[in-house]
Amino acid sequence: MQVPIVMFPAIMAITTDETKANDDDQVHQKGVKNLCENGVTKVPKKYILPEFDRADEVLQVDLTMPNLKLPVIDFSELQGPNRSEVLKSLTSACEKYGFFQVVNHGIPNNVISSMIDVSARFFELPIEVRSKYMSSDLTAPVRYGTSFNQNKDRVFCWRDFLKLVCHPSQDVLVHWPSYPTDMRRLAVTYAKEIKNLFVMLMEAILESLGLWGATMNMTEEVEKLIKQFQDGSQQMVVNCYPPCPEPHLTLGMPPHSDYGFLTLLLQDDVEGLQIQYKEKWVAVQPLASSFVVNVGDHLEIFSNGKYRSVLHRVLVNPAKSRISVASLHSLPFNSMVSPSPSLINKANPRRYKDTDFACFLEYISSFEPKRKNFLESRKLL
Ligand SMILES: O=C(O)CCC(=O)C(=O)O
Ligand SMILES: [Fe+2]
């Protein structure tokens, strides 16, 4: 009789621990906003990065470093007599940093502030409403989730997101969240404005690559590309980074590059984004009414490596929630991205394999996304 009495509590203990572990996992899958709403005071183990991967203070760049001037492009100047000067700044920004901020872009302030505002209100909805949009289908027109890739990440990061596929709008819009009730209207207005800006920026970038210009009409290649951008893929990622009780132990987003041609990022006034520059991390100070633009993997491939897709990450903080809206643009979903034939020659041979969106999705559903590992997989040896 002694044996079962001794064994029983031990079995109970194992079962309880296992159940707790499973419960925790289910809790983590619901995201960090939900953790905060339930009064978390310590970062759970699931979010604690190995020391090597944390945002070590020593690695922060000294912002007083000489020559460190993050590029700001005045979009209105691109339309005037200074276009060629601005194009030179664009070339240098894309080569040196893979990143710039754009001001005077012509998108009305109320469109921008409404997008931030409605995004914040979406994350204030009860978890039951938000989680209706959870899906493990990477091609779903709307997807609510947490971390970077919650099906693959061993350590979770401190962000929740809502991904909205924007194209073709007549098919996807009906799937977008119906709450807040003004979300569809405001997000679709924002999506159209940002798409126009993307296309105009790409025209300038193609010019900065020497593919057309003041003394050279648009070639068939350039005209076709611009049409493809107008009709291309667009995905908006609305990110929410709630305050984190122990921000030094985790990250809002791990170092990564974006897959498209360009990402146009709208952020509120809370700092968090950092880009990698010369092996150091540089904080991007939010500029009112501006967009952060970064070169993505597809532009690196298209430019045959002349423009570099930049590695970036997001830090969290103990006091303030942060909202950002990243708009990722590329060619239509099924189009191949290849190095431009005009940018390949004997001195500069092709450096990347062709790639398309399907190949990217296949990659991220099979591997834990790390740094620029997708792009590395597309490099020719
Ligand atoms: O929130 C940010 O500042 C960056 C977001 C980002 O990198 C992304 O959504 O890919
Ligand atoms: Fe990103």
UniProtKB/TrEMBL annotation:
The organism's taxonomic lineage, starting at the top: Eukaryota, Viridiplantae, Streptophyta, Embryophyta, Tracheophyta
Organism: Citrus sinensis
Highest taxon in the source lineage: Eukaryota
Protein's recorded name: Fe2OG dioxygenase domain-containing protein
Sorted UniProt keywords: Dioxygenase, Oxidoreductase
